[in-house]
Amino acid sequence: MKKLLGFAGKDREFLVLVIVTLLVTLVLYSQLGQRLFSLGGLQSMSIQVSEFGFLALAMGLAILTGGIDLSVVAAAGLSGVVAALVMSGQFIPATDENQAMLFVLGIVAALVTGLVTGLTNGIIIAKFSVPPILATLGTMILFTGIGMAVTSGNSIPLQVRAFPEIVRTTVGPIPVVFLIMVIAFAVVAFILTRTTFGRRVYLFGENDVALRFSGVRSERVIIMTYALIGILVGLAAIVIISRANSMRVGFGESYLLQAILVVVLAGFNPFGGKGRVASLFIGLVLLQLLSSSMTAFAFSPYAKNLVWGLILLAVMALNHYARVYRPKVKKAVDTPVPDDPGSGPESAPPASDGPVEDSDPAAATAGVGSARG
Q1: What is the spatial distance between Cα 88 and Cα 86, in angstroms, rounded to a whole number?
Q2: Are 82 and 110 spatial neighbours (Cβ–Cβ below 8 Å)?
Q3: DSSP string of 154-190, one letter each residue
Q4: What is the dihedral angle through the alpha carbons of 315, 46, 79, 275, rounded to the nearest 10 degrees?
Q5: What's the pLDDT tens digit per position in 139-191?
Q6: CA atoms within 13 A on the CB side of 102
Q7: In the prediction, which pLDDT does 356 show?
Q8: Cβ neighbours of residue 2 under 8 Å, at least 6 residues apart?
Q9: Whole-number Å distance between alpha carbons of 268 and 176
Q10: 3-state helix, strand, coil in the chain (%, to 5)
Q11: pTM above the 0.90 mark?
């Protein structure tokens, strides 16, 4: 309990986010009850949050370095398109005998394509010193253009019958894709907090100049970070095409703004160097609860944006108050100094733990003399 209170005291923004999430959960449960919090509803929410949770985690890594990745959704779309093409039977005809092979090839294609997109961003940013916002804006257009050129804007259906079962498979009552997302969050949290690379990511976001002068190759840190972002993007593409059983360019375009929203909601510093994976997970839960509840209330998309904006502003205001608030400490009343300097409390001899012995002036003088000698 003491450790929990100590952690809450050190990270007030995390405490504020947890309290807001609990309050929102209680309010929604009182209003919707089993309409939202039934087993089927919770499973549906866990699948939906997994779909864009990987993208939010990727965006969080980019912001930790002091940058941003505007291409995460476009990269996920391109990864999904490549994987869908592999499993559509256009390259290798789909038969009953090669279903398992196409299943594995589709997953590998999504992950490799995502890794390539991440390495592309990392090399452009690190080797050519292009600001992340400009580099990823350019690659966002590039990845979207490649996907449109390959598919002509059409949807690509899958011919692998087992692939949609990824989002339907559960371990007990928990969907497998949600477990994979939790494992990904745990692995990234371990990397950031327990490895040298993770500490360098935070240091790069705080002060990249100091990192360079410390002898660390900052270019390698950026490239490795965006490579990890690419792998997360590939995982997001697998979940997307599994749920839709097809893929087209432009699927999930709203996820970009939602990913930025949840990262800021989780207390990440937009200038880099500050942010917790645990806070990001809580922010995902809060955003998914709001999204599902607004669907249950039949809110329009415009109303959703309004509510998300209000929640974001409210949490930012609470975080600011938590940072600047300092409890007032009652000052001790100063004791007036007496006129006689020998009669005040300052002239009193220091307290001793043992009994006070009578002092002998002669012995004291002798002691002083022997000490000087």
Answers
A1: 6
A2: yes
A3: --EE---TTTTHHHH-EETTEEHHHHHHHHHHHHHHH
A4: 30
A5: 999 999 999 999 988 999 999 999 999 999 999 999 999 999 999 999 999 99
A6: 23
A7: 44
A8: none
A9: 28
A10: 70, 0, 30
A11: no
